[in-house]
Amino acid sequence: MAGMELLRLRVLFGLLWFSVTGADANQFTYTGSVGQDKVELILIHDYQLDALSGYLFNQSGRQPVTLEKTPYLDGEGLLINIMDIPRMASAALSLEPFVLGAQTLQGNWVDLKTRERRSVDLRRAVHFSYESRDAYVGEMLQAKVDKRFYYLVHAQKQVGEPAGRVDHISVRDRVSGELVQKLDGLNLFFRGAETLELVDFNGDGTLDFRVTPMLVRASDGAIVAGDPWYYLYQDAAGYQRHPSLEALAKRGHLRFDANGRVSLRPEAGVDYQVGTIQWEHYSFAGTLQLKLHARSEETF
Questions:
Q1: pLDDT exceeding 70 applies to what percent of the chain?
Q2: Structural domain includes residue 248
Q3: Alpha-carbon torsion angle 43, 45, 51, 52, nearest 10
């Protein structure tokens, strides 16, 4: 029973993660300048804590930098730390006055060590609303970048629709900003800045990504999540879906190792009576294939 309860909690955690990373959050993108630098600001509103977090993206370095989650009050100044040193803030955005969703944001970028100030001037580009009554269309920068690429998703939602959907993904060069690849004709769930779950699945040093397709259930027309799609980088061919990995994911839970190995825990691989879990271990073979190289068992 303990094992069953653990699995149930994992499922609930997964549903909660899906909710708080975009499906039930107001997210705003702003474009403009900090001093002489062209920037993009992503603000994410946590309605449960009534706090703001997000990312600041400088067009020169093209590296999203995390904003510390911070409570706020409409009409008062917002001071939000820029966490560009791991677990530490070296600068902050001071926006006065601040109103959630305002068309313009003005204030200062402040160096917390030297107190140097640079003027901030931003204009709202898109409001990605989770409310059924709202509509939107626009691009959302993803929170993680590769050493060579950064990623944007184009999302839209019509009035009355329960969730936003992604119709294409753009992969851009981090040095030049030029478009490297466009994945078009998609129908994916929009999760804001974390729509693409960016992970180096095959251990080749380049980020890959996992997404959730949006399906319409034939029985009642409800919008539901399909089995995940995996896009792996394939050198000259760019990002391509990996059919073997997707087929493996349908059989159970996948665990990825840093060395490019993938382990499968089949749905029928858990024996609660004797307390064992069966695993199958695979390696990537060739471009789009997987090779089984071992099986193992663990107890719980």
A1: 92
A2: no
A3: -10
73, 170: one domain: no
Q: What is the DSSP letter of 236?
A: G
Of the CA atoms within 13 Å of residue 193, those in its CB half-sphere come to 27
DSSP H helices, 153-222, are: none
CB atoms within 10 A of CB 198: 19
Question: What DSSP string runs through 8-36?
Answer: HHHHHHHHHHHIIIIIT-EEEEEEEEETT
| pLDDT tens sequence across 186-228 | 999 999 999 999 999 999 999 999 999 999 898 998 899 999 9
| Global pTM value | 0.88
Amino acid (1-letter code) at residue 105: L
DSSP symbol at 4: H
Write down the residue that tokens 């040193």 correspond to.
85
Residue 46, exposed/middle/buried by CB under 10 A (0-12, 13-18, 19+)?
middle
Residue 10: pLDDT over 80: no
Do β-strands 37-46 and 136-141 pair in parallel, antiparallel, or remain unpaired? unpaired
Output phi, psi for 116, to 5 deg.
Answer: -60, 140
User: Is 135 found in the same domain as 12?
Assistant: yes
pLDDT at 4 over 50: no
Domain that holds residue 96: 29-126
